[in-house]
Batch of 2 targets.
Target 1
Amino acid sequence: MVQTRLTRGYIFDIQGFSVHDGPGCRTLVFFKGCSLECPWCSNPEGISFFPEPLYRDSKCTFDGLCVNACPHKAISISKNGESDQLTFNREICAKCNAYDCAKACCSGALNIGGYEISVEDLYAKVIRDRQYWGAAGGITLTGGEPFTQPEFACDMLKRCYDAYIHTAVETCGNVPWKNYEKSLPYIDWIFFDLKTLDESPGHLSICAPSRLSANQSGHPSSSSPVPLILNNARRLAREFTGRMIFRLPVIPGFNDDAENIDRTARFIQSTGRNEINILPLHHLGREKYSLIGKKYYTTDFKIPAKDDLKKIVSQFSSLGINCYIGSDTPF
Ligand code: SF4
Ligand code: SF4
């Protein structure tokens, strides 16, 4: 138990009063680090494994306080036409543990996304919400991918489970099986994200990870994550005794074609589970990309029309899969 309380990990947010990620009212804990890099992700600040600068140029006064404070000379200010422009060397920032830049900034332009925390401190934060959870609610670990930090996830889940708190997790499936194994006894619900069953290069180039490493993902970067994801889904469906709900982000032009929906439905059927939550693409995370110095490419994808979502629901239903759309999910 002492060991459990000392385990530390990285998170980037805690949000209370959620009603979309499990039963009842819940507190969501967003883990840092993901082994995929889907361009529609609404939490791109969860993709990198460590804290990183979040910079909002509309608030910047270009006074250079952060430039002087950075011990690694990772920031520079230059001219872009008539305007000033501040640039980070994010490769250097990825190795930083000082974050003096954000401490020096007085204007609110610069913050650090993510922080390290112990299981016990995290538990102390979430337990404050207990009175709002009611009988059905609890915590949901999401991210990022919680199981890229398996010890931290396991110890937090156990800490909550031991306190009779309902526990749910959302996972992308792209981690070695051993990352799940120890946590399973402490999980009540799993949301398992599927993106596509198509392994062709065109599909992989969209959500396959440019930055996968064998350390984090368990397979080399040149291979497809799809077999690992599907193997994990099959095995969880078999060995996990709680409720398992698949999730599918509906990205028009990427995975909403009848063939992929049919393959997805048949795959779910083959696992013996029978629920899927489809999540229509939205662009609410777009602004966050500029904060971490990335471009948002997904504007080219249209938001799915209601009628198209209904067609997907009936396709799943015709194969005996209960399909819920977004926040309509009956938790
Ligand atoms: S995160 Fe670290 S390396 Fe990057 S600018 Fe801030 S202090 Fe410098
Ligand atoms: S310290 Fe803050 S306001 Fe000043 S240049 Fe840096 S980011 Fe901009």
Note: The radius of gyration is 21 Å.
Target 2
Amino acid sequence: MKAINISICRCGKFLDKHSWRPVKDVREVIMQKIRETMPKAKIKFEYYSLPEKHKEKKDIQTIVEFKGQVYKPVVIVKMAKCNLCEREGTKYFEAILQIRSRSEPVLKESVEYLQERISGLRQRGVFINKVERFEDGFDLYLTSNKLAQVLGRELLDKFGGGLKVSPRLFSKNKQTSKELYRVNVFIELPGFTRGDYMVVDDHVFLVDKLGRKIKITEAVSGSSRIVDYLGLDYSVLKRQQAYVSKTYPHLEVINPHDYQSSMIKNKPRKDLVLGEKANVVIHKGIYAVD
Ligand SMILES: [Zn+2]
């Protein structure tokens, strides 16, 4: 009996003649191969362990009962790279995902989100093959043009912002002479995150909800607005600390800029105690924040 050779990829596929197909349990592939020559054979696995490193081979030992005879076919499983995984760690890319934001925490959060999503897309051949860091963002070189656009839209749903997709260039793949399209997916994420305070139309607002539509709530009146990120004129307020100097008849804190006791303009969400350090933002007055 001829030796049975099976190539597997660590994304969970095996090479079936000339194409890579998903496989749940490699044992099923082995049994199928054995039964191609010995239909309905009884198969027992004596030793079964899969290779882990690239190019590593493992012998699988089976005992096969077929028409009253016992066979021990040679089965070799080799760890290889499928047509998609072989793109990992190369210069290959189909899209550049350009993420920009004025806010470092927003950038950090968005990149962490993408890394997690992309690690789950291994089976579909999506890898980050290069990262370029800029002062206001990242360029990620991705191996899938389609999924770069999907991920771009996901970022907008999660963070809000603006998106522009533009074909960048195309070249011919030398091996297949197929035209290769490349796109730039440019995403401008907001310079703020949920819980930030900012000034819009000269009023102080809390950022309540992010997404394609952004919900902001006015600090004094508590009334909310739904806004689009594109065209939004805003400036984010820095949280500062101030000592509570009075709680009655009005709440006052020591203004960290002029050291005067000043009245808080909004109603804080929690009670503040005299002498306590409170988080505040300042814009034509002081606002207590969480
Ligand atoms: Zn693979």
Note: The pocket of zinc ion is lined by residues 9, 11, 13, 82, 84-85 (CB under 6 Å).
